[in-house]
Design a protein that fits this description.
mainly alpha; Arc Repressor Mutant, subunit A; Tetracycline Repressor, domain 2; elongated
């Protein structure tokens, strides 16, 4: 990858998360990256093309840095996987001082009604994310760590939905407590008697 293309992607990666996709102009990206407009359009036909590239990169990074190390980590017991997952998510939001919110949730709220390309990619990613949670829940039920009287798929949907709602509250209150308290409660609800 060329240095200029990398600078464009890195700048857009940060700006889209901090300011939102619609609130970030190509000029903002050019200014932050120090790249000229002609070079931008050499690498990206449109801002949407860049946006999709950044979204796919962010998904790949999240999968490798968070999901694979926690929910898909075969060396951990299911309860530990879920605890490590919540810990990783809390760490991300503490690093941003609880200000930015979830880049995927933010983008879903901003773009799902106006851009089918973004909506579809996000929908597929959320399904994949839910499936990783579901695998962890099923493994926990099978091992006896998690209660078996609740539908695993619904629990997985609850965990993902709670996570995004809690992150919205984290961003609104500038406090990690909604995520911290909610995740502890979910762990208690899951625990087998």
């Amino acid at each position: 990858m060329s240095r200029n293309k990398e600078r464009i992607i890195n700048s857009a990666y940060e700006l889209f998360h901090s300011n939102g996709y619609n609130q970030t102009s190509v000029d903002d990206i050019l200014k932050a990256s120090g790249v000229r407009k002609s070079n931008f359009y050499y690498h990206f036909q449109t801002k949407e093309h860049l946006g999709i590239t950044v979204l796919n990169l962010r998904i790949a990074n999240y999968e490798s840095d968070v999901l694979l190390k926690t929910l898909s980590n075969s060396k951990l017991k299911p309860s530990r996987k879920l605890k490590e997952f919540y810990k990783a998510v809390q760490s991300i939001h503490l690093k941003s001082q609880c200000e930015k919110g979830c880049p995927f949730g933010n983008l879903a709220l901003e773009m799902s009604n106006s851009n089918e390309n973004f909506r579809t990619i996000l929908s597929d990613f959320f399904d994949s994310w839910r499936d990783k949670i579901l695998d962890c829940i099923l493994e926990g039920i099978e091992s006896g760590e998690f209660r078996s009287d609740l539908q695993a798929k619904y629990i997985a949907e609850l965990v993902l939905s709670h996570l995004h709602g809690a992150i919205l509250m984290v961003k609104t209150h500038r406090s990690i407590l909604p995520l911290k308290h909610g995740s502890k409660t979910i762990m208690k609800l899951l625990k087998a008697a």
